[in-house]
Recover the amino acids of this structure.
């Protein structure tokens, strides 16, 4: 079922005109250059931790909202949520919002490979949250957010902030100013 959800997501993204893999023609396990046409095109990148954090958040939220359901049904719901985000994130409306509200001027959407990998990263975060003590999960989320912000001046928190309520001061800081 989970793989069917991922396959359906990939099919929808392909039907939307998303590139299957990076236009560069290669597939990399890691691409670490954020200001690059290859960002969000390969298997992992600096935004992968955000998707791992999605998994931890979904685990906590669904554990609270669906206490009578087992791990697999909650993971299925989390997968639907993550897949819905991957589809929404790759619409022209959201891509344009990223381009106007953030420093992602050259962003043109994720490759299907990257979107599918992001769902896998969410699964990893969900699984980690199911196995680790809550305080450890919280510390890992905080360390990931601070670490990514320190390295690339962006993270899940800033990404959400800039999409919903762009601040010129944050944009200037993200741009190195």
């Amino acid at each position: 079922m989970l793989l069917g959800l991922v396959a359906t997501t990939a099919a929808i993204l392909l039907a939307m005109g998303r590139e299957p893999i990076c236009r560069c023609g290669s597939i990399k396990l890691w691409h670490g250059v954020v200001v690059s046409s290859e960002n969000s095109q390969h298997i992992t990148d600096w935004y992968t931790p955000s998707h791992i954090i999605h998994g931890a958040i979904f685990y906590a939220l669904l554990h609270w909202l669906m206490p009578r359901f087992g791990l697999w049904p909650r993971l299925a719901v989390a997968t639907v949520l993550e897949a819905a985000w991957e589809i929404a994130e790759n619409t022209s409306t959201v891509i344009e919002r990223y381009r106007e509200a953030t420093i992602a001027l050259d962003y043109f959407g994720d490759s299907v490979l990257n979107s599918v990998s992001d769902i896998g990263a969410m699964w990893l975060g969900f699984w980690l949250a199911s196995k680790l003590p809550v305080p450890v999960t919280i510390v890992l989320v905080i360390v990931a957010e601070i670490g990514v912000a320190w390295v690339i001046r962006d993270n899940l928190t800033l990404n959400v902030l800039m999409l919903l309520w762009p601040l010129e001061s944050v944009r200037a800081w993200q741009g190195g100013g």
In short: The helical segments are 2-15, 48-65, 71-89, 92-101, 112-131, 134-152, 156-164, 168-174. The chain has eight helices and no strands. Residues 2-12+35-174 form one domain.
